[in-house]
Each structure stands twice: as structure tokens, then as C-alpha cells.
């Protein structure tokens, strides 16, 4: 076969090699790249391994995150167990707190407050379960337990709370966290925490709070003991200034001149009278059942009739519920 095709000249060895390769491909095909899918919480991750390039590609289909608010009234699905008495108080005040601690006289409860409130900040309440009176305050970051212990254990906080705890015993009180402040409290954002406290003070009007505004002593009245202490440290210089006219008797001539001046004073004009009348605020007090308790020409008259301060009624008029001493509802007589 001198003039035959060239493939005829292929040796038997090459033919055997070709046959082996053919059957190898037939029975042992190349493995395809695999895609592994497995769940991680709410996320499905697709991981594709490419052996030829020796690298992995990660594909994240979806990521779902759930956020929990620190505001108590948004977590309505969370039920916190407490005594029937305290549950009644919370319903009356329409509160849904974050944490509730009772049996404050037990050591394990004190330890629980210490551990569970670490690193937290917000608004707290100390409730007298017997009288339904309460105190509201704010705690900066990691200061909840310090506030709790200062008020009801070491008596370095509110004097009113101190007297109440000594009278009614610690076991009849509850420590409640009303709302958590989401950020770490600093000098820059401390005003936000005080505003949050002020909101609860104006909304609930706590009887155990002396100050009517968070971070302010406006409207505060000193006790008789404090007045005596301040009087004892009164400086000699101020004492001399204050005693210049103290106990001084006027001469008969001076008294007569003052008398004549007062008698010759012109009467108040009608215009001035109308201005005085215009600055009054007539109000009406209702009982909780809706019946009228009384109508008053001024707030001062109403305050005297129910034995409270004028500012108590003015604060109640600024609130939505307009409750005074939790016994009456106040409304403007002329709207």
C-alpha cells in the first residue's frame, strides 16, 4: 500500500491509546460544578464552588432583620407578670412598662435589678402599692440600680420616698422601668432624657415628686427643717441689712402723711377693672362620675376649695386628662 491513506500507517499502539481515552471519557465524565444551598437563620446563602479557578462566589439572596423598640407602649405583645394590686394600678394609669420588680426586700430581687439593668438608661417609677402614690425619675446609662438603692435602701434620694418606705415597709413597693432611652447618655443628649422624664411628670403628676419639672427646681418649696438650716447659716452682713427696718416704729407725722396719701388715691377706672377681670380664668371642677363639683371665678378660689396649690390646677389644665389629685377633672368655664 504505497499509495494508500496516511492513517493506515498508524501503529497499533496509538490505536490502543485512543480506545482507552474513549472509554475513560465514556465511563468517567467530568464533574460539573455544584451549587450548595443551606439555610442560616432567615438567610439563604448560595455558595458556588469553581474548582478550575480555585475560588468561591457568595450570593446572599435576602437578609431580614427584626428590630425591637425600647418604647414600652409599642411592645404590647410582651406580657409582664405582676401582682393583682400592681396590675390594677398600671391599668388605671394606662401604662405598659418594660420591667417590673416587686418584693424589693428580697436579696435575689435586688441582684436581679442590678444584673438586668446594666448598661441601660431611661425612666423609672417607684410605686407604693398600698396608697397608689408613686415617684418618677430618670437614670442615665448604667444608673438604674444606683437610683433604686439610693431611694429605697440607703435613703439618699427623695425624702418623701424615704418616709413612705419607712412607714409602709419596702415589701409594699415596686420598682418599675417605664421606658428605655436607646442611646448612651452623654452631656450632649442628656437634655433628651430630661425631656422624656418631663413628659411623664406632666402626664402622670406623681405625688412623691417635689420638683414639677425634670432637672429644674422651679416651684419647689423648702420644708421647715430646710428653712431652719438656711436661717442658721445666714450671714451677719445679710442679717444687718435685713434688720435695718425690722421692728422700726414710724412717727405719728409719717403715719398721717401715708394716711392722707391713701385717702386721696383716685379710684380704679373701669378700664383697669376690665383688664383685671380679663386676666382671671374661671374654671369648673367635675367629679370623676361627671357631676359638677363646683364653679369658680378664679383658679385660686378652686384651689382653696379642694385644699391644693394653684399650680396644681394649672399643671392639670395643661395635661390631656386634666385630673386634679386623682379626684376631680378641671375644665375651663369659658372656652
Which features would summarize this protein structure in a list?
4-stranded antiparallel β-sheet, Arc Repressor Mutant, subunit A, 12 helices, 37% helix, 335 residues, elongated, 11 strands, alpha+beta, GIY-YIG endonuclease
Distance between the termini: 126 Å
**How many domains is the backbone divided into?**
3
Quickly name the level 1 CATH class of the largest domain. Alpha Beta
The CATH level-2 architecture of the largest domain is identified as 3-Layer(aba) Sandwich
What is the average per-residue confidence, as pLDDT, rounded to a whole number? 77
- Side-by-side strand order of the widest sheet: 4-7-5-6
Tally of strands: 11
What percent of residues adopt helix (DSSP H or I)? 25-40%
Secondary structure tally, helices? 12
Taken in chain order, the helices and strands follow as: HEEEHEHEEHHEHHHHHEEHHEE
Rg over C-alpha atoms, rounded to the nearest angstrom: 40 Å
Cα shape? elongated
Structural class label: alpha+beta
CATH superfamily of the largest domain: GIY-YIG endonuclease
Query: What are the low-pLDDT stretches, counting only 5+ consecutive residues below 50?
Result: 31-78
Characterize the biggest β-sheet.
4 strands, antiparallel
Amount of beta strand: 15-25%
CATH-defined fold name of the largest domain: GIY-YIG endonuclease
Pfam families: GIY-YIG, NUMOD1
Keywords: Endonuclease, Hydrolase, Membrane, Mitochondrion, Nuclease, Transmembrane, Transmembrane helix
Protein name: GIY-YIG endonuclease
Family: To endonucleases of group I introns of fungi and phage.
Amino acid at each position: 500500500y504505497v499509495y494508500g491513506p496516511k492513517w493506515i500507517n498508524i501503529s497499533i499502539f496509538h490505536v490502543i491509546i485512543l480506545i482507552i481515552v474513549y472509554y475513560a471519557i465514556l465511563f468517567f465524565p467530568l464533574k460539573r460544578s455544584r451549587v450548595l444551598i443551606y439555610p442560616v437563620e432567615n438567610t439563604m446563602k448560595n455558595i458556588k464552588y469553581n474548582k478550575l479557578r480555585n475560588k468561591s462566589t457568595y450570593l446572599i439572596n435576602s437578609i431580614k432583620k427584626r428590630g425591637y423598640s425600647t418604647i414600652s407602649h409599642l411592645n404590647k405583645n410582651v406580657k409582664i407578670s405582676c401582682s393583682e394590686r400592681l396590675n390594677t394600678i398600671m391599668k388605671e394609669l394606662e401604662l405598659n412598662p418594660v420591667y417590673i420588680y416587686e418584693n424589693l426586700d428580697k436579696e435575689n430581687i435586688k441582684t436581679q435589678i442590678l444584673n438586668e439593668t446594666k448598661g441601660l438608661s431611661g425612666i423609672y417609677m417607684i410605686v407604693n402599692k398600698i396608697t397608689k402614690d408613686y415617684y418618677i425619675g430618670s437614670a442615665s446609662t448604667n444608673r438604674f440600680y444606683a437610683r433604686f438603692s439610693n431611694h429605697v435602701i440607703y435613703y439618699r434620694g427623695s425624702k418623701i420616698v424615704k418616709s413612705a418606705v419607712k412607714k409602709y415597709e419596702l415589701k409594699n413597693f415596686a420598682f418599675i422601668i417605664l421606658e428605655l432611652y436607646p442611646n448612651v447618655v452623654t452631656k450632649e443628649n442628656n437634655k433628651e432624657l430630661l425631656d422624656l422624664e418631663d413628659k411623664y411628670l406632666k402626664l402622670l403628676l406623681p405625688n412623691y415628686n417635689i420638683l414639677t419639672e425634670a432637672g429644674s427646681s422651679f416651684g419647689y418649696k423648702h420644708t421647715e427643717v430646710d428653712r431652719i438650716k438656711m436661717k442658721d447659716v445666714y450671714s451677719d452682713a445679710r442679717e444687718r441689712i435685713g434688720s435695718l427696718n425690722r421692728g422700726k416704729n414710724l412717727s405719728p407725722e409719717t403715719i398721717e402723711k401715708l394716711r392722707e396719701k391713701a385717702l386721696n388715691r383716685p379710684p380704679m377706672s373701669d378700664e383697669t377693672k376690665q383688664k383685671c377681670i380679663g386676666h382671671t380664668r374661671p374654671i369648673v371642677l367635675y367629679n370623676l362620675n361627671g357631676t359638677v363639683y363646683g364653679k369658680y371665678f378664679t383658679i385660686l378660689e378652686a384651689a382653696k376649695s379642694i385644699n391644693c396649690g394653684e399650680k396644681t390646677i394649672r399643671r392639670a389644665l395643661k395635661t390631656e386628662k386634666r385630673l386634679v389629685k386623682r379626684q376631680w377633672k378641671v375644665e375651663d368655664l369659658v372656652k
